[in-house]
Design goal:
T4SS_pilin; mainly alpha; about 120 residues; transmembrane helix; transmembrane; membrane; about 75% helix
Length: about 120
């Protein structure tokens, strides 16, 4: 019980120490907020960069699993069932990644109005 009491006291004390930081984070009424404005293009670029990075990492992992399954299949002596499962899962993962990439490119084209071409 004493242990929980000490933890509770530390949490309350830490919360009280953090209150001045919250006051400093407030904007002063009537004055512009300092800093640079974030545009939708920057947000789109950030999301696009993160998505591309995750797709590249996922493709690398899928290829590693397919190669690992192939090595296990070659080294399997009479029972390649586990290796077939690993390869099948690697191929399914690669197809899912391909589908996600196509879906992201399609959505980006529709949102930026370049998917159907330019109408004049």
């Amino acid at each position: 019980m004493n242990k929980y009491k000490n933890i509770l006291v530390m949490i309350v004390f830490g919360a009280m120490l953090s209150m001045p930081l919250l006051a400093l984070a407030l904007a002063v009424p009537g004055q512009p907020v300092p800093g640079q404005a974030v545009t939708l293009n920057e947000i789109e670029g950030l999301i696009n960069g993160i998505a591309r990075f995750l797709i590249v990492v996922s493709v690398i992992v899928a290829v590693i699993f397919i190669v690992y399954g192939g090595v296990r299949w070659v080294m399997a002596q009479g029972d390649p069932a586990q290796a077939k499962i690993i390869m099948k899962n690697g191929i399914i993962g690669a197809l899912i990644i391909l589908g996600v990439g196509v879906l992201l490119q399609t959505l980006q084209g529709v949102i930026s109005r370049t998917f159907f071409g330019t109408f004049q």
